[in-house]
Every structure is written in structure tokens, then in C-alpha cells.
């Protein structure tokens, strides 16, 4: 390094002011993309798929998507923090199985059973977070292990049987409605709103973005980075427990097989909604649009009588397309 | 005034395994004084500044701040003492906006029952104020930092220090990556800090900046303090000879009470 100041670089004084609308449009690019995609799908399926455009079908889509959406709220926070949780599908299965076992075989009151399940889920979240914080084990590795282990535990404690039936009041949680709105949809809206406020309007949310963007800077400015990493896993695991209990209500039974591949639906929705896997970028509204996009795609194809295998292929390419759309903004046409 | 010294560090040592980064350094900063901390790479300047900012702990040595014995055990403690650091890497989160970076870790909040919410508009307004005060041309405080030029990023980092400084600002190579115009702006920003009677510790390789901005020059070489001289007694050649070792050692006894050259010159700003 020279002792005198280097004057070789061009002196940049002012940056041309980009127009505000352009700047806002750019920052909402991913959400606008998936929003337009969703509108396109809705228009398309309304025109060509029988019975797509009906309030019954809309309500059915929203109800079916509720668990994915609830877990996706937590997953958005996890991914914004620069982490990932691949175990949520297995957690949904384990939570449901445990809940059904407690209620059916041990006669534990349902509310208390739910609290027990939440505690177990929080412990799972703390486990993932601790391995990340104490030993620096990537959450990708821990949760890929748990994806298998938690599912195994669910089979073990249930002897691979479906546990049921549950008290008659439980299915109301899935099939009931308040003021005409199905309860799972209300729950989904409540969780999504809470997630939206948390991310955008609270200190916790702001610090999550900072942590995902630059953990070194975040901890220099007093943000409790380790504690926040623990919190996000506890949040997503507890939301998975809520999802698990909702599925028990829907099936009137707990089974270790419930929630298989849910992690893919959830992560797909979050990514399609514009949240960056590298952390620090994403919005709750994008995640909700992503959840709806994937759900409408599936529903429309089912109504059209398309083979579910084709849906699998389509969902895969939609994820790739969404990430490409996001990268295009950052890297232009040629990343290398 | 009982004491003129804001910070007094005695016999600071820091070793990383077998490597001794600091070998017993005495370092003091008077209230309102600007110290240029110079030396070759690896001389121990950054280690010293990191100790003052609470980022690392000395292996041994003692510190007094404002007349009291203290240990700057974390960056949080440093902030509470009113010590702000402008890091060489600027310490910005690229994914956050200008205002969000300025208030990072110190967000203004409003309580609603058991909940707390960010005062977004208030923070934006104050960020705009402090940037205007530094005469910085940043497109919008709601723009992401990722799109800013080097000088603008520097300004955001300096603005953050400006907003929270109470006693001392540590500047690690503030102009290393800047062009001529941007360096001039950054120096103007530092002058505003000085004008408020805040102490400044300035790490820099920029000799004109050392001569123009500082009251005292502290020279480090291989983990030791080899020079500690009022800037008025020095010229750039003398500083360079101390850095390179052509001149072994020059430590002037501290003059008390400290009087700023700028104050004598009749206030620059």
C-alpha cells in the first residue's frame, strides 16, 4: 500500500438520480412477477378449466393451501436469515402423530396435548439452531438429517399405524367456519399477517434482514446473531406443529406419513415469491403469492384432468423460472 | 476540568498465539483531540483500534475512560461510552436501505401495548437530516446501499457515526478506496466531527490528511509505539522516517492541558 493517496481512480461526484417509480418497481420485481403469473394462471384456468372460477373452488384451494402457507411464513424468516429448514415436512408428520397419540391413547386434553407438541417442536428448533450456533453445522445438513430422523421417530412412536379417531370437536378445526370463512383460512391469514408485521415493522424483522445480509456487520452493531438464529428455527418448527395438528383435524387421525414432501412445496413457494436463498432478501407478501401460485397451478391442472406427473414437472420448472427471473435483475444476461 | 484526558490506555499487549500484535503500547486521547495513527501494514494500528472499539480484548494492559477504570469488553460497551467506529469495510448491510443502515441495531421504536414497532418515518427523517448536514448526495434514504458509489457508502458509514457519536470516533482508513473529490468530502465530514469537540482517531496512509487533520501523530512499528509527537512539530518526511524505521524513536512528553491547533488557528468551521 502506498504512503500517499492514490489518485488514479475517476472521481465520482454524483450518481444520476434514478426515477423513484423505477426504483420501487425494481425492488418489487419478484413479487410483481409472481403476482402477474398468478393473475395469468387464474385468467387462463377460468377460461379453460371447468369449475375453476367458482367460490367453492377458491375456498377449497385456500383451505388446502393453509398448512403450506403457515409453514411458509416461518420458512420465509429462516431463509431471510440465511438458513434453511428441510425438516418441516417430517416435523408436520411427527407433530400430528404425537398430538394424536397423546389425545387418543393417553387421554390428554387436546389443548394440553397441543402445548406438549409445541414444546417438542420448540426443542427441535433449538436443536437445529444450537448445532448451527455452537458448532457452525450448516442448517442444511442438520435438517436433511432430521428430515429422515423425525419421520422415523413418528413411525416408531405410532408403530406405523394411523392413530384415531379423535374427539368429534377436533375436525371442526379444519371443516368449521367463523362468519362463513373456514377456520384454516382464518388461521392462515392471522399467521401471515403476524409474519408480515414482524418482518416489516418490528426490530426483530429488521435484524433478520441485517443478519441474512451481513452477519459480521449485524453482530458489530449489537444484534444478537446467535439468539436470532435459534429463534427462526423455533418459529418455523412451531408453525410446522400447528400445521401438523391441522392435518390431524382434516384426516381425523394422526399418521407418520402426513406432510411428505411438504418441505418442497413450502420452499418452492418461498423462492417463487422472491425470497433469496442467499439470505437478506424477501417479503411475506411474495411468499403468500408464491404459495397461491403453486396451489392454483396444481388445482387448475387437476381440474383440466392433467396427469399429476405433469404437475410435478411443471412445479420444478416454475421454481427454476422464478429463480432465473430474480437473478436476471441482479446479474443481467450473463452472470459469468 | 479535572482531567483533560478522555482515554488513557497503559501497557496494552495483544498476542495471537506466538504473534505479538501489540507489545506494551501506551496510548492516550485528549478531549477534542484528533490523533493520526500511522504505520506500515501489520504495525498494530488496526489491533489498537479494534481494542478501542471493543471488537477484541487486549491480552493485558489497563484503560481509563473519562477518569474511570474500564474494560471495553464488547462493541456494545464502546457504543455506550459514545465511541463510534467507521470500519474500513464500512460495516454496511448491502440489502438494507441507507436509513436502515444508519439506524442498524439502534432502531427507534414505538410501544403499542406489549408490542413494539419501528418508527420508520421518524428514522428516515433523521437519516435525511444527518446526510444533509454532511452535504452528501445520496439519491434517497430508502434506496438500498448496494447501488451506491464508494464515496456515498463512506458517507453513510460516517453519517451513522455522526448520529451516535458522543465522545470519540475511530476512523479506519476512511479514504483508502476513494477518489480525489470523494476524499475531500470525507475530510469535510471528519472536520464536522472535530468541530463538535469529538475526539477522533484516524488511521490513514494519506500523508496530506495526516498533516492537515491531526493534532498529534502516533506512529506504530512492529507492535510498538515509536512515535508520539504533536503534528505542529513534524513534517511528512519525519513521519515517514518513523514509519520505515529510518528514525528509531521520537516520543514527546504529553503537554497538558491539550490545546487544539484548530482552536488556536481560530476554528476552521
UniProtKB/TrEMBL annotation, chain A:
A Pfam match: BPD_transp_2
Keywords for this protein: Cell membrane, Membrane, Transmembrane, Transmembrane helix
One Gene Ontology molecular-function label: transmembrane transporter activity
Alphabetized InterPro entries for the sequence: ABC_transp_permease (IPR001851)
Keyword Disulfide bond among record annotations: no
CDD domains hit by this protein: TM_PBP1_transp_AraH_like
Cellular component, GO, one term: plasma membrane
Location of this chain's protein in the cell: Cell membrane
Chain segments annotated as transmembrane: 28-49, 61-79, 110-128, 140-161, 173-199, 230-249, 269-297, 309-327
Membrane topology of this protein: Multi-pass membrane protein
Main location as per UniProt: membrane
Protein name: Monosaccharide ABC transporter membrane protein, CUT2 family
Species this protein is from: Faunimonas pinastri
Organism lineage: Bacteria, Pseudomonadati, Pseudomonadota, Alphaproteobacteria, Hyphomicrobiales
UniProtKB/TrEMBL annotation, chain B:
Pfam families tied to this protein: ABC_tran
GO molecular function: ATP binding; ATP hydrolysis activity
UniProt xrefs under SMART domains: AAA (SM00382)
Name of the protein described by the UniProt record: Monosaccharide ABC transporter ATP-binding protein, CUT2 family
Keywords per UniProt: ATP-binding, Nucleotide-binding
Location of the ABC transporter domain: 7-247
InterPro entries linked: AAA+_ATPase, ABC_carbohydrate_import_ATPase, ABC_transporter-like_ATP-bd, P-loop_NTPase
Gene3D superfamilies (alphabetical): P-loop containing nucleotide triphosphate hydrolases
Transmembrane stretches, start-end: none
Amino acid at each position: 500500500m502506498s504512503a500517499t493517496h492514490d489518485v488514479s481512480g475517476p472521481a465520482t461526484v454524483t450518481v444520476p438520480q434514478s426515477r423513484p417509480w423505477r426504483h420501487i418497481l425494481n425492488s418489487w420485481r419478484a413479487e410483481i412477477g409472481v403476482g402477474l403469473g398468478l393473475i395469468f394462471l387464474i385468467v387462463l384456468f377460468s377460461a379453460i378449466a371447468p369449475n375453476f372460477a367458482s367460490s367453492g373452488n377458491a375456498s377449497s384451494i385456500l383451505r388446502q393451501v393453509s398448512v403450506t402457507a403457515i409453514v411458509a411464513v416461518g420458512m420465509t424468516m429462516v431463509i431471510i436469515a440465511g438458513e434453511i429448514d428441510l425438516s418441516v415436512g417430517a416435523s408436520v408428520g411427527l407433530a400430528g402423530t404425537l398430538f394424536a397419540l397423546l389425545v387418543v391413547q393417553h387421554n390428554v386434553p387436546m389443548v394440553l396435548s397441543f402445548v406438549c407438541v409445541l414444546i417438542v417442536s420448540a426443542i427441535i428448533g433449538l436443536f437445529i439452531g444450537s448445532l448451527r450456533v455452537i458448532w457452525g453445522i450448516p442448517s442444511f445438513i442438520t435438517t436433511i438429517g432430521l428430515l429422515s430422523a423425525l419421520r422415523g421417530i413418528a413411525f416408531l412412536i405410532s408403530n406405523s399405524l394411523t392413530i384415531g379417531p379423535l374427539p368429534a370437536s377436533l375436525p371442526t378445526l379444519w371443516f368449521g367456519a367463523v362468519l362463513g370463512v373456514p377456520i384454516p383460512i382464518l388461521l392462515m391469514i392471522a399467521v401471515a399477517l403476524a409474519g408480515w408485521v414482524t418482518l416489516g415493522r418490528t426490530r426483530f424483522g429488521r435484524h433478520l434482514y441485517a443478519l441474512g445480509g451481513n452477519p459480521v456487520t449485524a453482530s458489530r452493531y449489537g444484534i444478537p446473531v446467535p439468539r436470532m438464529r435459534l429463534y427462526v428455527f423455533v418459529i418455523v418448527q412451531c408453525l410446522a406443529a400447528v400445521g401438523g395438528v391441522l392435518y390431524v383435524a382434516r384426516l381425523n387421525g394422526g399418521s407418520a406419513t402426513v406432510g411428505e414432501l411438504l418441505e418442497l412445496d413450502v420452499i418452492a413457494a418461498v423462492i417463487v415469491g422472491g425470497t433469496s436463498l442467499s439470505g437478506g432478501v424477501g417479503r411475506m407478501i411474495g411468499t403468500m403469492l408464491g404459495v397461491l401460485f403453486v396451489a392454483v397451478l396444481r388445482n387448475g391442472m387437476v381440474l383440466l384432468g392433467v396427469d399429476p406427473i405433469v404437475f410435478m414437472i411443471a412445479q420444478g420448472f416454475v421454481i427454476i423460472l422464478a429463480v432465473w427471473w430474480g437473478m436476471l435483475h441482479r446479474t443481467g444476461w450473463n452472470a459469468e | 476540568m479535572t482531567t483533560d484526558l478522555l482515554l488513557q490506555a497503559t501497557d496494552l499487549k495483544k498476542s495471537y498465539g506466538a504473534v505479538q500484535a501489540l507489545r506494551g503500547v501506551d496510548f492516550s486521547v485528549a478531549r477534542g483531540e484528533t490523533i493520526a495513527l500511522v504505520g506500515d501494514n501489520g504495525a498494530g494500528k488496526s489491533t489498537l483500534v479494534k481494542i478501542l472499539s471493543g471488537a477484541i480484548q487486549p491480552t493485558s494492559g489497563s484503560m481509563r475512560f473519562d477518569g474511570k477504570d474500564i474494560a471495553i469488553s464488547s462493541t456494545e460497551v464502546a457504543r455506550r461510552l459514545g465511541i463510534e467506529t467507521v470500519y474500513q469495510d464500512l460495516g454496511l448491510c448491502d440489502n438494507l436501505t441507507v436509513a436502515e443502515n444508519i439506524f442498524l441495531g439502534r432502531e427507534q421504536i414505538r410501544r403499542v401495548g406489549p408490542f413494539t414497532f419501528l418508527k420508520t418515518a421518524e428514522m428516515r427523517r433523521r437519516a435525511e437530516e444527518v446526510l444533509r448536514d454532511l452535504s452528501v448526495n445520496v439519491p434517497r434514504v430508502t434506496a438500498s446501499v448496494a447501488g451506491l458509489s464508494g464515496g456515498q457508502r463512506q458517507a453513510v458509514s460516517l453519517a451513522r457515526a455522526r448520529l451516535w457519536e458522543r465522545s470519540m470516533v475511530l476512523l479506519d482508513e476512511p479514504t483508502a478506496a476513494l477518489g480525489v473529490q470523494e476524499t475531500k468530502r470525507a475530510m469535510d465530514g471528519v472536520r464536522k466531527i472535530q468541530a463538535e469537540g469529538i475526539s477522533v482517531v484516524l488511521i490513514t496512509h494519506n500523508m496530506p490528511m495526516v498533516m492537515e487533520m491531526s493534532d498529534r501523530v502516533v506512529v506504530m512499528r512492529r507492535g510498538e509505539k515509536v512515535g508520539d509527537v504533536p503534528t505542529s512539530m513534524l513534517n511528512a518526511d519525519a513521519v515517514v522516517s518513523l514509519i520505515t524505521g529510518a528514525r528509531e524513536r521520537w516520543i514527546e512528553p504529553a503537554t497538558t492541558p491539550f490545546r487544539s491547533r484548530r482552536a488556536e488557528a481560530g476554528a476552521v468551521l
